[in-house]
């Protein structure tokens, strides 16, 4: 091959590489534009709510602009004390129910998951199938039977119907998530511990649980979010305003006679999502690791 032919081939190859690089850059740019636009569409309701929390009531639905003409900071002060009970009480009620529910879910579901994943007992497969079937039963189907049960127990108008079931491993999703994670741990750890004389509970407490923090953090975060923002459960079981949780309190800003307080409601809505945002921000690395290792991708 002559020098001229070699130079031509090299030049053609260089042009091909440059063209491929330009196509890759254009494709990357289009992907980023698409993702940015999609993200803006997804967070638009949140941006609108933040904007509405700083607007007077007459501007919230009267202007399409996201930037308030005047910043009405009084919505936050008025919203905190606008109802017959201060929002301090509602936040404390939500915190009590949520913290106890998270503790109950993590402890009870990890025990159940450990039994299904690492122990052998009669009817294990049958019980596991029954547990999985509960995932397909909508909550609304069992709402009335549960209400009648708690009514006969005298638990209605207390926090017990919202907290006690969490300590009885009633969340099949968390059990399944932890089972998937526990199965990833080597069986040799259990066998070595049994040779050293450890009981099943000691193996769970000393070996399985410390290695399962990502899965437990994932369950804790989901449990925190679902309990904090739960509206139907407190609506059914709580009757006294002073016992209301934050979602029920936000509903009280709306009135059927047209005297709704939208500005304070949106201001309190912004404050109500801050605990969820902070909780997720602190434990986001653990939740990603837990979901990845449990196979729930």
TrEMBL record:
GO CC annotation terms, alphabetical: plasma membrane
Domain ABC transmembrane type-1 stretches: 91-283
UniProt-listed CDD domains: TM_PBP2
Subcellular location: Cell membrane
Spans traversing the lipid bilayer: 29-48, 90-116, 128-150, 162-182, 203-228, 262-283
Gene Ontology biological-process entries: transmembrane transport
Topology of the protein relative to the lipid bilayer: Multi-pass membrane protein
Gene3D superfamilies in the cross-refs: MetI-like
Primary location group: membrane
Sequence similarity: Belongs to the binding-protein-dependent transport system permease family.
Protein name stated in the entry: Carbohydrate ABC transporter permease
């Amino acid at each position: 091959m002559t020098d001229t032919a070699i130079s031509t081939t090299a030049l053609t190859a260089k042009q091909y590489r440059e063209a491929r690089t330009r196509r890759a850059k254009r494709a990357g740019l289009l992907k980023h534009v698409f993702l940015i636009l999609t993200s803006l569409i997804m967070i638009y309701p949140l941006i609108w709510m933040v904007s509405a929390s700083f607007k007077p009531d007459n501007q919230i639905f009267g202007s399409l602009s996201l930037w308030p003409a005047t910043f009405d900071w009084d919505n936050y002060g008025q919203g905190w004390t606008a109802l017959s009970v201060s929002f301090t009480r509602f936040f404390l009620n939500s915190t009590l129910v949520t913290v106890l529910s998270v503790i109950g879910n993590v402890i009870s579901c990890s025990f159940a998951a450990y039994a299904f994943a690492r122990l052998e007992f009669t009817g294990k497969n049958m019980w596991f199938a029954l547990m999985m079937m509960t995932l397909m039963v909508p909550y609304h189907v069992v709402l009335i039977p549960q209400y009648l049960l708690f009514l006969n127990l005298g638990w209605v108008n207390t926090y017990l119907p919202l907290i006690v079931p969490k300590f009885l491993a009633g969340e099949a999703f968390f059990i399944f998530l932890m089972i998937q994670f526990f199965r990833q741990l080597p069986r040799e750890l259990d066998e070595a511990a049994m040779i050293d004389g450890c009981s099943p509970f000691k193996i769970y407490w000393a070996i399985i649980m410390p290695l399962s923090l990502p899965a437990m953090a994932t369950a804790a975060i989901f449990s925190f979010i679902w309990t904090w923002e739960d509206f139907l459960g407190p609506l059914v079981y709580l009757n006294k305003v002073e016992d209301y949780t934050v979602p029920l309190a936000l509903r009280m800003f709306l009135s059927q006679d047209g005297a709704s307080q939208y500005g304070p409601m949106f201001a309190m809505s912004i404050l109500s999502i801050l605990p969820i945002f902070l909780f997720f921000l602190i434990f986001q690395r653990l939740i990603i690791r837990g979901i990845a290792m449990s196979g729930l991708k």
